Amino acid sequence: MKNLIKISFFVVIILCSTTVFSQTDNANTILTLNSENDSVNYAFGMANGNQFKQQVFKEEKDTANLENFHKAFLRGFNADFREMPDGELQQITGTHFGISLLKEIKDGFFIDSTWIANKDLIYNVALEVVNGKDTVGGFTKETAREFFVRIYSNKYDTILHEITPEKLDSLNVAFAVSMANSYMKYFDSITGPYFAKGFKFGFLTTDTANIYEKIYEVNGSYIALRGFEMLSKNGLMNDSTITLNVKKFLAGVNADFFEDETVMTQEFAVEYLRDIAKTREKIKNEKLYGKNIEEGKIFLAENAKRKGIIVTESGLQYEIIKKGRGKKPTATDRVKVRYIGYFIDGRIFDSSFESKTTEMFGLNQVIKGWTEVLQLMPVGSKWKIYIPYQLGYDVSGADKHVEPFTKLIYSIEPFATLVYEVELLKIEKTKK
Fold it and tell me: Are 261 and 29 in contact (CB under 8 A)?
């Protein structure tokens, strides 16, 4: 059944925001887009601007804090992090984690003021881990996490568990060890002291009254840092041929922050990026799997000449093995089936017969070929169907994964023509 459901590839999701604040001089929202690269940068910035807001603010609508975050983000990207020393980058990262950690424990563990977080103890333990110590207070990374999860579970057990001073100290140590170990991937032995300096500045701030305001500015710098680092290295949409254009990207980010849809709407930006991704995927896969297109065409052309083969307007083919006398499902119905899936060379790639099970699914949840042909089948029918790649898994293939140090592997390759034997057993009407 895993090969029937049609899963869409990754796209940036836009969530509408109603926050508006005054524009600053360096916050242009409109620039001339002279190429596809310009347009992708603008659309990508617009789409991700909203993601940044949702990631940092969630449901909060504090205009002043949003503006602090936005200004810090702009400063970070405009500074061009490539020109900054490694130490400064690590210090920003450390400050981000320090102030984030402080915010997390400000109201006690598990949002309970009686489970008091010992700020000094947490800081000292975290610093020991950052400075390279594997075991602190008797806890390693693994045992610290296990202990913290166990205490958390006990707190919400049906039996009330009182926490002793000793257990609370252990909880503080385990929390610090676990969190500090999660930071280790962001620095090395050379840049570690800079990270520690930033962590100290963020975590030991005495201005706790304004911690919520401060964290937005720090997060703006941090997200800009990591964003610039990733996009300048890997390209936009993980495509090295789509290079980062800072001005176009930031213009898109600003357009989202200021809800300026003069150049493009948020919906258009998402759809445009989706189309670009699919087009580029098709071009790439045509080079690697183009042979499947030609082999499928030849197979279907020959198959259409056989007696009993019916060809639909879409190009799908089927033959009736057993006639059914029941009703035909509609596109909104759920159906129960048994099936076997073949490649055109006869190899089986999926089968419910082998496991002696049936499958239940909605007709609007599967590949186009199945949605079309099952609406033609009366219950009790058994047909053999031949699906062109456009009505199957199209340019993307199915269930792809990367073998270690080798290559991308598909259970169904892009552009593959597929053959199924399908038995329609039952229709289950969708409830209104």
Answer: no
Burial letters 323-343, b for 16+ CB under 10 A, else e: ebeeeebeeebbbebbbbbbb
Same domain? For 42 and 120 the reply is yes
412 neighbors 349 (Cβ within 8 angstroms): yes
Question: Long-range contacts of range 162-165, CB-CB < 8 Å, 24 or more positions apart?
Answer: 163/114, 163/115
Contact between 119 and 205 (Cβ < 8 Å): no
Q: Which residue has the higher pLDDT, 261 or 383?
A: 383
Which among 203, 61, 19 is positioned nearest to 122, based on CA atoms? Answer: 203
Q: What is the DSSP letter of 114?
A: T
Is residue 163 within 8 A of residue 112, CB to CB? The reply is: no
CA–CA gap between residue 154 and residue 352 (Å, rounded):
43
Domain residues for 343? Answer: 289-428
Q: According to the model, what pLDDT value does residue 51 have?
A: 75
In a domain, 31, yes or no: no
- Do residues 325 and 205 both lie within one domain? no
In a domain, 339, yes or no: yes
pLDDT in tens, 321-330: 999 999 999 9
Residue 43 and residue 178 share a domain: yes
- Structural tokens at position 10: 């990754």
Q: What is the DSSP string of 127-190?
A: HHHHTT-S-BTTB-HHHHHHHHHHHHHHHTSSS--PPPHHHHHHHHHHHHHHHHHHHGGG--TT
Total count of domains within the chain: 2
Q: Locate 294 and state its tokens.
A: 């030609």
Comparing 51 with 157, the larger pLDDT belongs to 51
Dihedral of the alpha carbons of 57, 63, 64, 67, in degrees to the nearest 10: 70
Contact 430, 332 (CB under 8 A): yes
